[in-house]
Design a protein that fits this description.
- The structure is a single chain.
- This protein is mostly beta strands.
- It has two domains: 156 residues, Sandwich (Immunoglobulin-like), CATH 2.60.40.10; 82 residues, Sandwich (Immunoglobulin-like).
- Helices cover 0% and strands 52% of the residues.
- The strands form four sheets. Strands 2, 4, 5, 7, 9 and 10 form a six-stranded mixed β-sheet that branches.
- It is flat.
- The N terminus is likely disordered.
Length: 259
């Protein structure tokens, strides 16, 4: 097998621990955009001892794959199943959406990683430096001339880095996180609260159910707690997705407008 793509978008999330991630295909540039965002260069956000950690892996599964033997050919990927995600620190776990972890070829999905780093884990990992390489094991079910053929594969290059609390105030150890808007459903306006790890610009985008961007703004955020109010009086009633982006970290939530 020449190529088997487990393609995903990686985005930092502030779901409560154990909550299911929200799939947001609008963050892809188009229906043939099969790639990981951020990639393994940007990588997973760091974790801090004593600070709840939540990250969403969002992905778009490639619909087909190429082979070179016994001759060059392209076959459909029926589905892809996440078998396991290994290498995460103790107290960290993941859950998928759909819950069974199996995603048809060409479909979108996500997996949420949550955890709470404890003292000592900043000195853990294979090299005792707080770096935990994460390996995703998955199996692609490929239709080879009408016969289901299974190809196990791995995705490497991601890591979770745990940093010490350093006995400084909690505000100094802030992960990017977004709370659910309120009120939800909203009529005239709704409020958002989020934490940002540093001073800087945060991009807010609201999408309708078709994945079209209907509102977009840049927020000048400070390190720590931030609040943002959105006028919803001019929005048609319905379900929307909203995204907060801070650097390589992206959080997606679902909201409802009801007049």
């Amino acid at each position: 097998m020449k190529k088997l793509y487990f393609v995903s978008i990686l985005a930092l999330s502030s779901f409560t621990l154990g909550a299911q991630c929200v799939i947001n295909q609008a963050v892809f540039s188009g229906p043939t955009d099969y790639r990981i965002l951020p990639d393994t260069v940007q990588n997973l956000p760091w974790a801090t001892v004593g600070v709840p950690y939540t990250t969403d892996l969002q992905f778009h599964v490639q619909p087909d794959t190429s082979v070179t033997t016994p001759f060059p050919a392209t076959f459909d990927i029926t589905d892809m199943t996440i078998d396991s995600i290994v290498g995460m620190p103790a107290n960290f776990s993941y859950s998928t959406n759909p819950a069974n972890g199996t995603f048809p070829g060409g479909s979108y999905g996500c997996a949420g990683v949550t955890g709470l780093a404890v003292a000592g884990q900043e000195l853990g990992g294979p090299l005792s430096n707080g770096v935990y390489p994460v390996v995703i094991h998955f199996t692609a079910n490929v239709d080879v001339f009408g016969t289901p053929t299974y190809f196990p594969a791995t995705k490497t290059g991601y890591k979770i880095v745990i940093q010490a609390a350093n006995n400084v105030p909690a505000m100094a150890n802030v992960n990017f996180a977004v709370n659910q808007n309120a009120p939800n459903p909203s009529d005239k306006q709704t409020d958002f609260s989020f934490t940002n790890p540093s001073n800087g610009m945060v991009q807010f985008t609201l999408y309708n159910i078709l994945g079209e961007s209907v509102k977009q703004t840049s927020i000048s955020a400070v390190k720590g707690e931030n609040r943002f109010t959105l006028n919803t009086a001019d929005l048609p009633s319905g379900v929307y997705l909203y995204t907060f982006r801070s650097g390589a970290s992206v959080v997606t939530r679902r909201m409802t407008v009801a007049h």
